[in-house]
Amino acid sequence: MFFSDNFFKWFYFTLLIILFGSAFILIEISLKSFSPVIIAISRVTIAFIVLFIYSLYKNYNFKFVIENFFLLFILALSGTTIPFLFISWAQLTINSSETGILIGFMPIFTIIGSHYFFKYESITPRKLFGFILGFIGLLILLFNNEEAINIYDNLIAKILVIIASLFYALNALLIKKASNIDVIPLAASVMLISSIQLLTILIFTNSTSMFNSEIYTDSIIALLVMALLSTALATVVYYKIIQNYGANFMSLVNYPIPIFAFFAGVIFLSEKFNLYSVLSLLLVIISIYISQRK
Predict the structure, then answer these.
(1) Taking burial as the number of CB atoms within 10 A of a residue's CB, which of 33, 69, 151, 218 is the most buried?
(2) What is the pLDDT of residues 7-25, one digit of tens each?
(3) pLDDT reported for residue 104
(4) HSE (side-chain half, CA atoms, 13 Å) at 170
């Protein structure tokens, strides 16, 4: 009542940056104790339980599940199951900041898919320039990190993250087809289906190293926070943004995420700060402004 739609648009956008940006660091902490499959299945299962209980409390119905099952199955596969697994596996060998930077491929995939395959929004020179400028900003941040400057190191892990970003783009484009469904029961249903998908993978992979030799308290806390905030709450906000403001706008959130992670490291972990970091941040801000300017 007191805030404009534009306020909520950017509030959700900022909140999603924080929620998604925190996930990469939380995954890194969780990997000290748990395997990638356990991290993925724990995230979606806990998120499902929380969202389902809240849905019952709010008297949401789930009649939409049967008639939209195939769509929900693909949403689970493309939005959580495959990306969560691939990103967790990748972070066994690459760091969280580099993972966040490589996810920056998603906006490029989204704008191409939106224009050529789903016909949601046309590519304009201004939008394309904005998206490319944001990606250049991420590349500056990547090459500013001396440990990540060799593109060929851990190449398979990096390819997995880029593939994950492609699936995220597909997911963002498909969610528009569920725009008539309330976001909370939609998110709960997707989490349940993803849990079943991941459980099937867990059974068939027959992993003997689901847990490390020692379980650390901070890993458990990181996994719980990631499930509640970076998965359950983030998925609801994510769906809300796409349904209300479009997939292209939502995909822009992937540009500030590594910037958020970097400056969080500067503030809380005393990591190095230099002019290249500022340049990267400015380019990302300018790219978002250009892409969204009417």
Answers:
(1) 33
(2) 888 899 999 999 988 888 8
(3) 76
(4) 18
The two three-digit tokens of residue 21, written as one number: 């940006």
> What is the identity of the amino acid at 291?
S
> In the structure encoding, which two tokens stand for residue 50, read together?
């929380």
> What residues are paired with 34 via a beta bridge?
211
73's tokens: 């199955």
| Amino acid 148: pLDDT | 44
Torsion sign over Cα 254, 259, 265, 268: negative
Q: Show Cβ contacts of residue 69 under 8 Å, excluding neighbours closer than 6 positions.
A: none
Distance between CA atoms of 229 and 11, rounded to whole angstroms? Answer: 16
pLDDT at position 124 over 70:
yes
Q: Are 148 and 85 in contact (CB under 8 A)?
A: no
Nearest-angstrom CA–CA distance, 24 and 100: 7
What is the model's pTM? 0.84
Q: How far apart are CA 48 and CA 130, in angstroms?
A: 36
Which tens digits make up the pLDDT trace of 24-82?
A: 888 888 998 998 888 999 999 999 999 999 999 999 999 999 999 999 999 999 999 99
